[in-house]
Structure formats: structure tokens, C-alpha cells
Amino acid sequence: MDSKHIKYLSKKDAISAAKKLIKLTVPNEEHLKIKVTDRSYVPYYLCSFSINAIFKTSVGVIHSIDDSSAVGLWGPTVKENNLIWDSEARVPETNLVKGPPVGKKKPLGYNSQKIVELIAPDLIRRYSANINYTGGNRVNYTKFCAPRAKDIRFEINEVIYFPLWEFEVDYLGKKYVLSALQKGDHFTIFNSDLNICGCGKKSEMFCSLCGDVVCRKHSEICEVCRKPVCSNCFSTIGRLPFRKKICNECKNDRKLMANLEKDLKNKNMLVIGSLAILAIISLFLGVYLYSTGFPLSNPCCCFTGLVTAIIAWLVFKK
Fold first, then answer.
1. Distance (Å, rounded) from C-alpha 75 to C-alpha 89?
2. Scanning 38, 48, 60, 236, which has the fewest C-beta atoms within 10 Å of its C-beta?
3. What are the φ and ψ backbone dihedral angles of 311, each rounded to 5 degrees?
4. Per-residue b/e over 142-154, b at no fewer than 16 CB within 10 Å?
5. pTM of the entire structure?
6. pLDDT digits (tens, 9 = 90+) for 6-48
7. 90 C-beta neighbours (distance < 10 Å), count
């Protein structure tokens, strides 16, 4: 069985590659810190197989299997041992060094028997089928045809050792784990807790204030400084229709808050004054129309003015 491995990149290049894997919105790159915590090798077994099986009944052969292909299998470090079939199983001949990796930390692997045990059940399911045939009595039957383990021949052609990097991603003191497989000169995410918001949905950004990763539903944009923040780091000030969403950092700025409150107060007074004028006009219009002989106009206009005044008091009361 031939073996090859991919050489480790330098830590500097690995960290640069890890940064490219982070697809979240990063408000400030200066606060994003990545360091290497561990690195090891993961074996990838490239196997070939052939399968020959014949299924007979009293009427003769009803089905046969004669096929061969390739299958790839990750070593035990990769918890989800999804088999990689056919042409996708093959590894491009780039940046490969002959021989297994040399170092103090030996990668965990499988022996030949274990590889067969892992691949055979999935291979049997893949080639199993319900076959319809007509018996000698001219009655239609269905037979489940599944190859047996002895019908399959395996050969481990090659084992390739891929570097597995463990990174610690720190944003404003919040630490996350990022594991990535080095495939040549590029990386593929192996495991990460950066991608999931606390609600279980896909995360889209880092909070500018606390460093949490959150989805779009649990994020807001501060209407003052325009920073993206999580739902725990913002609050609302003012009343409709001039309500503002601001981050906690802006809220704690006393000078800024004083100017905002003054501006909101002026806007509120403008609206209150407009509603008060509308209420007075409604009242006087009702009195005038009532004096000209429209008996229902006075109650209607008085009611409109009263409702306007009540709305102004409810919405903008301190």
C-alpha cells in the first residue's frame, strides 16, 4: 500500500488561509485574532473495489452485478465517515510527498479489516435492488437482490495524509474553534462553531460590542454609528414616529445621548404642536358649521379634535 502526505504550511500561511474561511461580517479586522492551537494528520484511504454477483431462481438468472470503481474513506479523526465515491474519491496529484508523515504525533488510522468493515455495508446497500421477474407459472414476483460480502473484492491502493489544523478564533474576547483540512495550498472547514447562531440558524456577523456570532434575525444596525450589533447590545430610545435603535456604546455616551434627546424632544414638540393646532381647528370648525345649520357637524368635529388630542397625549407623554 503506497502512502503520501501533504507538507504543513507555515503557521503564518495557515492563519492567512483560515481568515479566508471566515465568511462572517467582521466589523473591525483589528479585533479578529487567530492562533494555531494544534495540528495533526488525518489519513484518507483510496480504495478500489470490484463486485460480481449473480442472482438465480427456478427460472434462471434474474439479475447480475459486475462493476468496479473507487471509493475514498477518511480516517477515524473525521467523525462523519461519509464515503466518497467514484471520480470524486480520487485526489489530485499536487503538493504530495511520498511516504507517511514523520513526527512525534502519529495519525490514527485503520487496518485493512476495519476498512472493509466500514465500506462493505454501504457498498451492499448501494448495489441492492428489488428485481421484478416472471416465474414459470407466469406469475409476477419481486425479489430483493443484495450482494454478499464475499462477492466484493477490495484493494487499498493508497493512503494520503492530510494536515488537520486547529485554530482558536478570538473576537473581542469571545473564543471560537475552527478546524480545517489542508488540501494542497487551500483549506476546507472540517469543524467550526463560528457558523451557528445561538438560535440554531446560520450566523452572518460578529457583534461589534460583545463578539457574539449572530444571524440576521438577531442583529441590528445602530442608527447613530452604523455598527452591526447583536440583539443584546442595542436598545430603542424615543417614541414613534422618531424612535431610534442605538447600540449600548452610543447609549452610554452622555454627550451624544443629551444631543439625541434634545433633537427628539424638538421633533416631538413639533408634532404635538401640529396635532394641537389640528384639534383646535376641528373644534372651531365644528362650532362654525353647527351655527350655520349643520346639526351633526359640531359633534363630529368635536369628536375628531378630542381623539386627536388624546392620541397626542398617549403617544408623546413623558
1. 14
2. 60
3. -60, -45
4. eeebebeeebbeb
5. 0.67
6. 888 889 999 998 898 898 888 888 999 999 999 888 888 888 8
7. 13
Q: List all residues 6 or more positions away from 14 whose beta carbon is below 8 Å from its beta carbon.
A: 8, 36, 39, 165, 167, 182, 187
Query: Could you identify the residue written with the cell 494542497?
Result: 184
How many CA atoms lie less than 13 Å away from 85 in the CB half-sphere?
A: 8
Residue 172 C-beta-side C-alpha neighbours within 13 Å:
13
Helices 254-291 & 297-316 angle (0-180, nearest 10):
170
Instruction: Let me know: does 199 contact 218? Beta carbons within 8 Å.
Output: yes
How crowded is the C-beta side of 63, counted as CA atoms within 13 Å? 16
- Separation of alpha carbons 80 and 226, rounded Å: 41
> How many other CB atoms sit within 10 Å of the CB of residue 186?
12
What's the rounded Cα separation, in Å, for the pair 297 and 132? 86
pLDDT in tens, 38-72: 988 888 888 889 999 999 998 999 999 999 988 88
Residue indicated by cell numbers 507555515:
10
Average pLDDT score over residue span 278-296: 62
